[in-house]
């Protein structure tokens, strides 16, 4: 599904540069649920941004679902993101003036789907996250947990090969975090491949594998006995 080899990334700082990723090798198979952990500055967000085609590596290979990701123009990157990826962010990234249904249906607009189909698909995915009755509500009328469910529905609407979650529980209280993780685990049970950045050990242990970064290198990559969120909900 995802294969990264010898990935390097540096950022210029004044007259020098900061070497953030130092030869990362990472493979993720279809159906895996992987947590990426590391302290601030370890390179985990940079790695997620490169996988998400929001940034490009300086050197190294990145292959996603058999397609080599390289030399991306902004237009090509947008096409690939829409084709391969679904994103879940800590800050939800919902459009405030669009209701829940319109937010969920947005990726489908960029895929060229007609309005009637977008509405039907959007309602299906809102129903999947238990928010069909909230379709007409604006983001400011939703709780944090509901906003994240709308964001998950939006990520799923485009039928991505890979779901990228950047601190998906970071803005939520513990109970709501576990409810969201229960839902994400269900998606993984259905076969969805999930890559998640988190700094919370309890959330990481709800994945099946933990990759730990430090100073731009992978220090540890282990499969774990997955803790089911349902036991806390």
From TrEMBL:
<dbReference type="Pfam" id="PF00005">
    <property type="entry name" value="ABC_tran"/>
</dbReference>
<dbReference type="InterPro" id="IPR027417">
    <property type="entry name" value="P-loop_NTPase"/>
</dbReference>
<dbReference type="InterPro" id="IPR003593">
    <property type="entry name" value="AAA+_ATPase"/>
</dbReference>
<dbReference type="InterPro" id="IPR003439">
    <property type="entry name" value="ABC_transporter-like_ATP-bd"/>
</dbReference>
<feature type="domain" description="ABC transporter">
    <location>
        <begin position="2"/>
        <end position="233"/>
    </location>
</feature>
<dbReference type="InterPro" id="IPR017871">
    <property type="entry name" value="ABC_transporter-like_CS"/>
</dbReference>
<dbReference type="GO" id="GO:0016887">
    <property type="term" value="F:ATP hydrolysis activity"/>
</dbReference>
<keyword id="KW-0813">Transport</keyword>
<dbReference type="InterPro" id="IPR017911">
    <property type="entry name" value="MacB-like_ATP-bd"/>
</dbReference>
<dbReference type="GO" id="GO:0098796">
    <property type="term" value="C:membrane protein complex"/>
</dbReference>
<dbReference type="GO" id="GO:0005524">
    <property type="term" value="F:ATP binding"/>
</dbReference>
<protein>
    <submittedName>
        <fullName>Putative ABC transport system ATP-binding protein</fullName>
    </submittedName>
</protein>
<comment type="similarity">
    <text>Belongs to the ABC transporter superfamily. Macrolide exporter (TC 3.A.1.122) family.</text>
</comment>
<dbReference type="GO" id="GO:0022857">
    <property type="term" value="F:transmembrane transporter activity"/>
</dbReference>
<keyword id="KW-1278">Translocase</keyword>
<keyword id="KW-0547">Nucleotide-binding</keyword>
<keyword id="KW-0067">ATP-binding</keyword>
